[in-house]
């Protein structure tokens, strides 16, 4: 992604601020996204109406299930618009063809009921990732956050509120002389023509909420990537470099302009003495000498006699009629079937609450099982080494790589420092620190960041070890994310402190395979 071309300002935000950013983008692009949604959804909706045999209830469920199909073009359009390449109306069909690829199939099948759809959709549609790479990316982005799920639930409620609001508005605003809308039939009787009207209103609610839902998920995606990969720093560095290049290219022009300005100033004539005449010479004599009170009254009357001050205007205002306080007020005119409607809505609310309670129990059980699985330490038997160490368990942490840690970590780190491979040396030291942390029984969940591991170390290690772990983490973060290399002297000092904390010999360690100099 060309970060320097992004239209929105990339900065560290809270997750709900990312949602606000997405809603702001949705308001700005609403009309284009809304039209694109209807271009995609209308043919599919007509086809589903034929395939469902004219059953409005089945048709509405089928259209709801195909919502990712309608949201994918919106995601592609928003991705291009954010990079400053706002698509033209003639490019809409090309965007639809590019978005509806094989990557959309998981969103329509086994991941259809996921609550993070709009947040994770850019991983496949914009990044083009699939398979294991896409799974790892989704796991890292989703680690420890629940705002995307809340966003989906809130948008579902917005759709229901919009649908119910339109139906109730039609009931209360249609005069009694005209045929009234049967709310009970519109909600419960699927064989009624009014049910088709209700389903069409729900489709309209889908179209109104979809641009905001897609853009809000996209805003969350940008916020999370900025938090994890420091996009704001990268953009700042690029802009600073561009400004430096522009300043270097324009230095000659600035010098020439300065010389021309100095020459122009020197060529101006000297100011004349009349410009500094005393203030008394230019004051109005009337203000200087004052006015007689009688003359002032005459002038005031002349001014007030002018049309600007003495004219009158007639203004007509609409005022409410005064009601007789003794006259009784008419009561509300309620629909005759409001009681049956209230019973129906209460029944729907009851079953909805039961369904939500059941879904909450399932989700809670899943989280409990997942938490128990993550707290189990991951041990693997070492298959190499000496005979005395063959049965000793060695920790293998999957996020740290598949290679096995060397037996003599200090010697290996010094060997890498001598070769000039400072990044590899620091990475080995950091992996060894995490492996030792895991040997002490600390469970490190998959996908944990450096900050998460440091927080676990603070809770489990003594103060001296915590300080050393903080230094190792800081050096590793500076190398891994800021690309600032650590000098060999700093690495040797860090390694010596690491060895002292473990009662290991410090200083250079000879290679066991090297010959003696004697």
Automatic annotation (TrEMBL):
The answer to keyword Zinc-finger applying to this record is no
Which intervals hold domain Protein-glutamine gamma-glutamyltransferase-like C-terminal? 429-498
Stretches for region Disordered: 379-398
Specify the superkingdom: Bacteria
The question of whether Aminoacyl-tRNA synthetase is a record keyword is answered with: no
- Which parts pass through the membrane? 29-51, 145-174, 194-222, 254-273, 351-373
Return the InterPro entries for the record.
TgpA-like_C
What keywords tag this UniProt record?
Answer: Membrane, Transmembrane, Transmembrane helix
Return any one Pfam family short name.
DUF4129
Name of this protein: Protein-glutamine gamma-glutamyltransferase-like C-terminal domain-containing protein
Organism for this UniProt entry: Thiocapsa roseopersicina
């Amino acid at each position: 992604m060309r970060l320097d071309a992004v239209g929105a300002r990339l900065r560290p935000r809270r997750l709900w601020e990312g949602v606000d950013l997405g809603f702001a983008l949705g308001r700005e692009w609403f009309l284009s996204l809304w039209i694109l949604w209807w271009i995609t959804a209308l043919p599919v909706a007509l086809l589903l109406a034929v395939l469902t045999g004219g059953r409005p209830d089945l048709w509405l469920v089928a259209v709801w299930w195909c919502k990712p199909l309608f949201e994918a073009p919106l995601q592609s359009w928003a991705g291009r618009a954010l990079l400053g390449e706002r698509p033209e109306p003639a490019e809409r069909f090309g965007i639809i063809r590019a978005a509806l690829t094989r990557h959309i199939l998981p969103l329509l099948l086994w991941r259809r009921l996921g609550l993070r759809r709009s947040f994770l959709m850019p991983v496949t549609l914009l990044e083009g990732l699939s398979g294991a790479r896409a799974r790892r990316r989704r796991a890292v982005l989703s680690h420890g956050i629940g705002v995307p799920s809340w966003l989906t639930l809130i948008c579902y409620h917005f759709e229901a509120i919009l649908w119910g609001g339109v139906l109730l508005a039609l009931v209360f605003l249609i005069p009694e002389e005209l045929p009234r809308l049967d709310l009970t039939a519109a909600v419960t009787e699927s064989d009624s023509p009014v049910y088709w009207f209700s389903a069409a209103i729900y489709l309209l609610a889908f179209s109104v909420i979809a641009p905001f839902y897609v853009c809000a998920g996209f805003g969350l995606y940008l916020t999370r990537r900025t938090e994890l990969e420091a996009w704001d720093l990268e953009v700042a560095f690029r802009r600073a470099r561009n400004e430096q290049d522009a300043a270097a290219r324009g230095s000659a022009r600035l010098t020439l302009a300065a010389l021309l300005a100095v020459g122009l100033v020197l060529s101006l004539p000297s100011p004349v003495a009349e410009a500094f005449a005393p203030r008394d010479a230019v004051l109005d004599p009337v203000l200087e000498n004052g006015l007689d009170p009688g003359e002032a009254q005459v002038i005031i009357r002349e001014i007030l006699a002018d049309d600007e001050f003495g004219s009158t205007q007639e203004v007509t205002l609409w005022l409410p009629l005064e009601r007789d306080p003794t006259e009784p007020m008419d009561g509300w005119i309620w629909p005759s079937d409001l009681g049956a409607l209230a019973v129906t809505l209460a029944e729907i609310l009851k079953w909805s609450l039961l369904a939500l309670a059941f879904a909450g129990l399932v989700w809670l059980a899943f989280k409990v099982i997942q938490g128990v699985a993550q707290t189990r330490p991951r041990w693997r038997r070492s298959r190499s080494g000496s005979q005395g160490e063959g049965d000793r368990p060695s920790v293998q942490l999957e996020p740290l790589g598949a290679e096995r840690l060397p037996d003599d970590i200090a010697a290996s780190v010094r060997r890498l420092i001598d070769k000039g491979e400072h990044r590899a040396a620091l990475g080995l030291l950091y992996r060894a620190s995490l492996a030792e942390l895991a040997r002490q029984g600390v469970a490190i969940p998959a996908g944990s960041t450096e900050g998460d591991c440091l927080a676990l170390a603070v809770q489990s290690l003594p103060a001296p070890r915590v300080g050393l772990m903080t230094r190792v983490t800081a050096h590793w973060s500076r190398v891994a994310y800021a690309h600032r290399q650590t000098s060999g002297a700093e690495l040797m000092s860090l390694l010596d402190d690491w060895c002292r904390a473990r009662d290991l010999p410090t200083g250079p360690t000879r290679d066991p395979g090297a010959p003696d100099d004697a």
